[in-house]
Amino acid sequence: MRISKKKLFIFIGIFVVLAVFVFANLKKKGQKTKIQTETVSKGTITETVSGSARIQPEVQVKISAKVSGQIVDLGVKEGDSVTEGQFLAQLDQEYYQAAMEQTQSNLAFAEAGYTKAQNEYNRYKQLFEDNLTSEAELDLAKSNFGQAKAQVEQGEATLKQARDNLAKTTIYSPMDGTVSQLNKKLGEMAMGSQFTLDVIMVVSDLTQMQAETEIDENDVIHVTVDDTANIMIDAFPDTTFKGVVYEIANTGSTLGQGTMEQVTNFLVKVAMIEKPEHLRPGMSSTVDIITESKENVLKVPIQCVTIRKPVKEEVETTEETADSTKTDSTETKGKPKEEEKPVKVIFIVENNIAQQLEVETGISSDTEWEIKSGLEEGAEIVSGPYRILSKQLNDKDEISVDNSLKKDTSENES
C-alpha cells in the first residue's frame, strides 16, 4: 500500500516534535537548579504588630448645650487656650427668663392659697373642738390645706428647674485645655437634648496625646498593656516617636459582617511618651507595637521557611523488617491511611544537594524567623528564588549555588 506524500509529511512532523520534546526533557534533567543561599546566624529578633492610627488627645470633652437656644455670644475661637470655669458661650436667655418669672408668679399665688388654706384649717379645727362645726367640714378644710401645700411644693420644684434651665444658657469650660474644634458660629441654634449631642465645640488636653489604632483579631492576642511602640506620623517624616500601650478594647468592631470581606478589629490606645511641637488631633500615623524581642537566637530570612510534607525515611529491608511490614500491612488493610500534614521546612545545601529539614519556629519579625530547633548556626540554606523554593525544589535535588544576582543587588543598594 502506497503512503501519500501528505501523510508522510505529517508522520515526519510528529516524529520531529516528539524528538525535540524528549531532547528538551533530557537536557532539563541534566541541568542543576540554580539557587541562592544564606548562612544561618544568631542575633536579635523583634516581633511587632502594626496598624494605621490617628493622633488624638487622651482627654477631650465635647461641649454641647443642655437647653436649646440661639448662640448670642461666643467667648473663644478655635485654638484658644481655656481654663476650668472660663466662659465659652451664651445662649439667648429671653425665653428661659420669662419662664422663670412666670414660675415665680405661680409660686407666689400658690403660697397665698397655702396661707389661706392653713388659716381655714386652723379655724375649723378650733370650731370642731368647741362643737360648733361638723367633722365633715373639718376634713374638707384639712384636705384643702393639704392640696395647697402640695401646690407650693410643686411650684418650688418648677421654679428650681426654671432657674436651672436659665443657668444652663451660659456655658463654661469643664477643664483646662485648648478649643480643638469649634462647630458653631454666632447666631446659630444649639439644640439641647438628653438623647443626642449637638456639639458646639471640643475642649482637649493637648499636653497628653495618644495614637488610636485598630488591630486585627489575629494579632491583638499578642498585644499587652505596657508594650512599647514606635509611632510614625505622616506630618513628621523620617522621625519615630516612642509610645506605650495603655488600653486595649475588650470588644471588637466588625466591618462587612456577613460578607467575604468581614474583619474584626480591636481598638488599641498608645500613649505618646515623646510629642513633637505643632502636633494636631486627627493626624495620620502608623504604629508598630513591639510585642516580644529575643537576643542571641538562631534566625533565618523569612522567605527561607516554606511548607512541605515530611520526607519519608528509607528503611533497610531485612527478613525481620519484611515480616513486620507484612504484619503491619495485614493489620492495617482496609483502614484509611492518614495523610501526613505539611510542616515547616528549610532546605540546607550539602555537596550541591538540597536536603529538606523540618524546623520549629518561634517569633518572627517582618524579615526574619526565629529557629528554635532543627538547624545549626553556620549552616548554608536555600533562600531563593522564591518560585523555586516554595514549589519546585525537593529533597535530594541537585543544585547549583549562584549568589551573583544577590551580590549585584546589595552593591546597587549600597
Explain how this protein is built.
- There is one protein chain.
- The chain has 414 residues and is of the alpha+beta class.
- Among the domains are: 49-57 and 210-293, Elongation Factor Tu (Ef-tu), domain 3; 62-91 and 169-207, RNA polymerase II/Efflux pump adaptor protein, barrel-sandwich hybrid domain (OB fold (Dihydrolipoamide Acetyltransferase, E2P)); 93-168, Helix Hairpins.
- Helix content is 31%, strand content 36%.
- It contains seven helices and 23 strands.
- It has helices at 5-30, 94-129, 135-167, 217-220, 319-332, 386-392, 404-413; strands at residues 33-39, 41-57, 60-64, 69-74, 81-82, 87-91, 170-172, 177-182, 189-190, 199-204, 209-216, 228-233, 241-248, 253-255, 263-272, 284-301, 306-308, 343-350, 353-358, 360-364, 368-373, 380-384, 399-401.
- The strands form five sheets. A six-stranded antiparallel barrel has the order 2-11-15-13-12-16.
- The longest helix is centred in the N-terminal third of the chain and has 36 residues, at 94-129.
- The chain is elongated, with a radius of gyration of 42 Å.
Task: Please render the helix and strand layout as text.
Layout: H1 5-30, E1 33-39, E2 41-57, E3 60-64, E4 69-74, E5 81-82, E6 87-91, H2 94-129, H3 135-167, E7 170-172, E8 177-182, E9 189-190, E10 199-204, E11 209-216, H4 217-220, E12 228-233, E13 241-248, E14 253-255, E15 263-272, E16 284-301, E17 306-308, H5 319-332, E18 343-350, E19 353-358, E20 360-364, E21 368-373, E22 380-384, H6 386-392, E23 399-401, H7 404-413
Parallel strand pairs: 1-23
Antiparallel strand pairs: 1-22, 2-11, 2-16, 3-10, 4-6, 4-9, 5-8, 6-7, 8-10, 11-15, 12-13, 12-16, 13-15, 14-15, 16-21, 17-18, 18-19, 20-21
Helix pairs in contact: 2-3
